[in-house]
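Q: Got one fold?
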Amino acid sequence: MIPFAEEFERSALKFKEHISVNSQQLTGKIRIGTPDGLGNCYLASELKALQEKNPLLEVELVSVPIYYSLSKREVDILITVTRPTAKRIMVEKIISYKFGLFASIEYLKSTPAIQDVADLNEHRLIGYIDDLLYDQRLRFLEEIFPAARTVFRSSTVLGQMSAIKAGAGIGVLPFFMIQTESDLVRILPDKYVEREFWIQVNPDSSKLTRVKETIDFILNIMRGDDKIFNSL
């Protein structure tokens, strides 16, 4: 079991409590807030194993383009792309992960060849809606191509992937969402963006066995799937 670290601005503490293999099954409800891509395309299926081990545990996965509040008890566990700055929050980095440029095979058949970033000026680009962006570190396309001007925008990465698959244009997608998408082609493989996932919990909530066990479960599965998050 991987211990969960409590990290403040200049100090770090480690959880010392471990759950016995002979302890009772987890019960009650656990609510997890995540970015929409991670929750819908990865955790939704992986959490099945946690519930198979603990059939009395109720899981609520909140995977929407907004960060719910730990302080207001809207979620028990929160996963974000940006490292939190609040001092009274327990936080640990889960994993780094990568994004790349992708387009559908059909789109590339009918559009000019792409040799470098400047060629993107001749293409339809897909991205987020600026004034609905819930995390500024989601500006992936601008990081690769600062002059980018999108013609299709969606508030969710799932919406963007659907548009890309339909041949609406080129967009930036995380590697872990592309693993089974054989109809998508990576564009300019030397261009990528890297981000991190951070897991957070209130100190008082962390005392609950079901919260600690769920955090350890998430840390274990995501770190064990490093190749899914960082390679194709």
